[in-house]
Amino acid sequence: MEAPKKISFRQKTSTECPVCSFEFFKEELFSGGGRLIAAKLTDELRRSYQVSNKFGKVYPMAYQVTVCPGCFYSAYPKDFPALDPQEIEKIRELTPSRKGAISKFFGNIDFNEDRELKSGAASYMLALDCYSLRNKKVAPTFKNALSSIRAAWLFSDLAEEIPDKPYKKISTFFYKKAYDFYMKVLDLIQTGEEPTDAAGNMGPDTDKNWGYDGILYLSAVLTVKIGIQDPDIIKRIENFEKSKKYLSRLFGAGKTSKARPTELLDMTRDLYDKINEMLTKWNEEITPKEESPQ
User: Fold this and answer.
1) Per-residue pLDDT tens for 96-122?
2) According to the per-residue pLDDT averaged within each range, which of 119-133, 179-193, 230-244, 252-266 is highest?
3) Phi, psi dihedral angles at 218 (to 5 degrees)
4) Which residue has the higher pLDDT, 179 or 250?
5) Are the C-beta atoms of 135 and 154 separated by less than 8 Å?
6) Of 220, 250, 267, 274, whose Cβ has the fewest other Cβ atoms within 10 Å?
C-alpha cells in the first residue's frame, strides 16, 4: 500500500517555550507540489481550495499559530518568544484553564502530533486566550481579530464535517467575537493605541495580506452579518453608517482606484449598495410619518 503523501514537515531546530521551557519541533506546511490548488475568494476574503487528488483536503490556516504542546501557550511565530516576565507569569498561571477548555471542546489533543482541522481550530482558541494577556506592543487586538475570524471559519468547516457536534454554535460565537474585535481595531487605527506595524500580516487568510483595505472591508462584512442582529435600531444605524463611510474610502465614492484590486473593489461596491438599502429602510422606519390632511 502506498504511503500517504506528506503535507508538512518538522523544523530541524527545536523551539523552546518561554513559559514552561518545553522543547518541540514546529510543524510547517510544505509549499508547492499541488498541495494547495487555489479556488474562489469568498465575500469574507477567505481563500477556498480544491481538494487535491494526491493530498486530499489541506487547511493551510491550521498551521499558522505556534502552540507549545506542554502548556498550550500559543501565539503567532513572531510573537511566540517575545514575552516579558509579567506576561510569562500570567500565562503560566492560566495553563490549567487553557488545557481544561481544550479538553472540554475537543477531548484529548496532542500538539506534538501533525495538525489537522480540530487542532487547527483549537490553536486559534488558545491564541485568543493568550493574546488577551499580552501587552500593547504586540498589537493584541489586531491578533485577536484575526484569530477570531479564522476560528469562526475553521469551526464552520468542522460543523460541515461533524454536524452532530455543536461546532456551528461555536463558529457563530467566534463570528461575534470577530465583529467586536474588528470594530475595536478600527478605533485603534484612528487613535494609534496599538502599533499597526506590530500587526504583521493582517490577512484575514494566509494567501494574501489585504492590509488596511481588508480590515475596512471585512469590518463592513461583519457589520452586515452580525451587526444587523443588534436590537437597538439607532445603534445599528450608527454602526452601518460608520461601515458605509469606511467602504466609500475604499473605492473613492465609486471611482475606480488602480492601486486596489478589481476583485476587492467589486465586492466593496456590492456591499456598499447593500448597506445603503438597509439604511434607507431603517431610516424610514424611525422617521415619523406626516399626518394626512383632514
Assistant:
1) 999 999 999 998 999 999 999 999 999
2) 119-133
3) -65, -35
4) 179
5) no
6) 274
